[in-house]
Amino acid sequence: MKLPELSQFQTTSMTKQNGRDKSSSLLSDGFLFVGGAMVALLFVWALGSFISPSPDPNHSFSTGVTESKPRVASENVNVSPPKYAVDAHGSNLHYDPPERTFYDPPERTFYDDPKLSYTIGEPIRNWDEKRKEWLKHHQSFAAGADERVLMVSGSQPSPCRNPIGDNLLLRFFKNKVDYCRIHGYDIFYNNVLLQPKMFSYWAKIPVVRAAMVAHPEAEWIWWVDSDAAFTDMDFKLPLDRYRNHNLVVHGWSHLIYDKKSWTSINAGVLLIRNCQWSLDFMEVWASMGPQTPKYDRWGKILRSTLNDKMFPESDDQSGLVYLLLKERDKWGDKVYLEGEYYFEGYWLEIVGTLENITDKYATIEKGVRRLRRRHAEKVSESYGAQWEEYLKDAGNGKGSWRRPFITHFTGCQPCSGDHNQMYSGHSCWEAMKMALNFADNQVLRNYGFMHQGLLDSSSVSPLPFDFPA
Predict the structure, then answer these.
(1) What per-residue string of b and e applies to 224-236 under the rule 16 or more CB within 10 Å gives b?
(2) What ranges does the record list as Polar residues composition bias (predicted)?
(3) Which of 217, 285, 302, 337 could staple 251 via S-S, CB 3.0–4.6 A?
(4) Is the pTM of this model over 0.85?
(5) Burial of 216 (0-12, 13-18, 19+ CB in 10 A)
């Protein structure tokens, strides 16, 4: 979208009087007198204007979508309009409605409301209308707003206990940044508890809530756990599939409603629409959290309701399953249970397939030159889309030879090292390296390099032209 052109005040130069009649000295003296009087008058007028500034003739009192034009400091100087910063989609990163002054009427947004809160427990009303109004004031963000995504992730503020934990978290974060850069998404990484009593699994809800308020231009907030890695850099969220829903989680309906299983969904990766429904839902969901006096009671309720829940604490995933079970009529129609692809996939069933997937993709590329053509990273999406024609028979999920979208290292605990005892810490760390290098190869290829092996995080090799032919 083109930004509104910034107009400049145009000035007229003083014309010079030529051909003065030298024979009339009286007429000449008259002109000098009149000229001096005019200079004095202009000086008085300018002084008065400085003391009592008049309203800007270009200021609009409307609260519509037209953005105010910048004021130029001097009409006698040819000032070029500033080159305002824009994002990858051409949205104006500079403009915001002016602040209230004693002579300017305000162009108010919800941010000017002193009662606005970013925190759970202080509900926001009429959020959909507030977002629409904000977009009216920031029309450069209106184009493409329905598909704008903000990714959110986070980890603890203190150093990891696991000796390699900080390095692993850094690599997981890099992986998310790579994915967002390729697809033009913004990302917010948080490493503080926004509400200290909402710790552990509950910590993401305050972050998502605050992100909605901080980013009214984003239609979707996409929470991705710190221990989840994108292992298909080409795949893009099928947002059109979710157009009638407000919350997307990886899950299976029969496990929720027939088995009443705690593992019927995974709340570590979720896509939630930035809307009033979501704010209301999160308030109810968070009411089971540790910041409430009913936290212990909710632990007992959730454990008695869900057949396979072994630990006594109330957790976010059990709470989500409970709401779908007990309040299905209120929330269920707007929740999409995504089970057709690896919206997030369990690492134990994925990592062992990565070598075979690499070989399968290379075989296809050898026979299709346009898939292996070198290109700039900025146009990677178009090349990723070309792969779909050749992945029709790959399947999705378990047993597929298609790249898994997100590989989630549930139970590995890379930062604390307190991994699930059903597998060794070494198997977790090795699997993480393989998945991260598998993803990194897809990124590095656009820079002319690849890792020498999936377990080799340090060494890379330059790629020959027309690789892998």
Answers:
(1) bbbbbbbbbbbbb
(2) 7-17
(3) 337
(4) no
(5) buried
